[in-house]
Amino acid sequence: MTVTLGFDVEEFDFPLERGREIDFDTQLAVSTEGLEFLLQALARLGLRATFYTTANFALRRSELIRRIVRGGHEVASHDYFHGLTAGADPAGSKQALERLTGQTVTGYRAPRLAVVSPATLAAAGYKYDSSINPTWIPTRYNNLRAPRSVSREEGLTIYPVSVSAPFRVPLFWISLHVMPLPLYKLLCRSALRRDGHLNLYFHPWEFSARLREPAFGVPGYLTHCSGTDLQRKFIRLLEWLKARGCRFLTTREYLGCDE
Asked: What is the pLDDT of residue 259?
C-alpha cells in the first residue's frame, strides 16, 4: 500500500475569495509558517512528499523550495499564480521552477483543481496531472463520472486524488478538518483496499496558527481544527499510516515518471 502526500504551496489568498483584504506579505507569511511545520514534521517521521508550488511563491521563498529539494521531496507545479483572476501558465511555471531547483518538473496540479487540457500540459512537458477530485463538491465541480484510478489521456498520466469506496466521499483537505479522525481513517482504509494507494492533499496555510485571525474571514468549519490542533491530528494520521506498513513515495516515483 502506497501513500502519496501532496501539498499545494501557494500564496494564502483564501481571504480574497471571501471578500477580505490581505496584503501579499501576509499571504506569504501564513503559508511559510505552515510549510516550515510540514518540512520539520516530514523530516522527523522520515517521509517524503510532493509539493505542488506556484512559481509566484517559489520565487519569493526560494530557500524553502531548495529545502524541499534537499529533503528528498518532489517539487511539482501549481501553475504560476494562484489568484482567481490569474490566467493559467503551466509552461511558464514549469520553466521557472526548473531554473530554481535545477531539476525537471514532471507533475502539475491546477489551482482550485481547475480544468487544464491534457494536451496543453503534455505540450508543456509535463508527464502527469493530479487535478481531478473524482467526486461532487457543490458549487465547485461534479466529477462523479471521472475515473478514480490512474488513467492516460493525450499522452498524459491522470492521477486523481483519493476518495472513499464504494461511495466517493472526498478525502481532501477539508475532510481532515471536519471529520473525527477515526472516521477519516475508516474512509482511508476503504480507499486503500479499493485502489491500493492514497493520494491525499493539503495546503501549508491550513497548519498556521494565524488561520483563526478574524480579519481573514476563514469559516468556522476550518478554523475549529486548524493550527496546532490540525498539526497534532495530521501527525497522528501519518503515524497510523506508517504503522499499517504504508510506503510514502513522491508522486513522480509512484507513477514511474523518473523512468
From this structure: 52
